[in-house]
Amino acid sequence: MPRPNWDGPPVDLPAIHADALAKLRAAGEQAPPHDHAKTPAWAGELLNDGDALFQVLHPPARPLTHTEAERARRHGVIVRTLSDGTRTATGSRIFAPLASVIDPCRKRGHSPWLYPQTAIADRRADRALAPLPQ
To answer: Do 47 and 78 fall within a single domain?
Structure first.
């Protein structure tokens, strides 16, 4: 899987969505009274905070979703569910670094078990820890 580009979209999102945002603002400003008390309040909040709400249209430094982060956590959650957790502080202290190495190695096309094996052997031989494979 190629690494995502976080430099932002190659298009001008505010310009693309300018008409839709203008229509939304006009609808909020011209909204007739409504039977439901929360509807005008929500429209007012949208008008007051619209610039902050739609700030994500300006080239984001990060993706608009957290899908990648959720995928990265998925394997750890599955292991925790199947194993009923680590049950001890020592188990948690060992599992956390392993979990943080497995997914990056897998995404970079390296064996997720070769790096920990090499790292353990290096540390036992009193050698410096090698960086994660690129």
So the answer is: no
Single residue among 5, 24, 57 that ends a domain in this structure: 57
Predicted confidence pLDDT, tens digits, the chain (134 residues): 444 555 555 667 778 888 988 888 888 787 777 788 788 888 888 888 877 877 777 765 666 667 777 877 787 788 888 888 888 888 888 888 888 888 788 888 888 888 888 888 998 999 998 888 87
Could you give the residue ranges of the DSSP H alpha helices within 1-134? 13-16, 18-29, 38-53, 67-83, 89-107, 114-124
How many domains does the chain fold into? 2
DSSP string over 108-126: TTS-TTHHHHHHHHHHHTT
> Is the same domain home to 76 and 96?
yes
